Amino acid sequence: MPGVISWGSKRKLTIALFRILAASLIPLCILVGRYLVAQPLRKMEELDTSYLVPGYVESYSLWVMPKGKTAEILRKEIKTLSAAYPPAPDFEPHVTLLPDIKIPGQDVIAKAKELASALQPYYVSFQNISRGSVYFQCVYLLCVKNEGTIHAGDVARKVYSMDTPPYMPHLSLLYSDIPAESRDLAAGQAHKRLYGEGSNYDTLLAETGFTVDSIAVWYTPIEDKSTASWRKIAVVPIV
Ligand SMILES: *[C@@H]1O[C@H](CO)[C@@H](O)[C@H](O)[C@H]1NC(C)=O
Question: Would you call 144 exposed, middle or buried from its count of C-beta atoms within 10 A (0-12, 13-18, 19+)?
Answer without folding.
Answer: middle
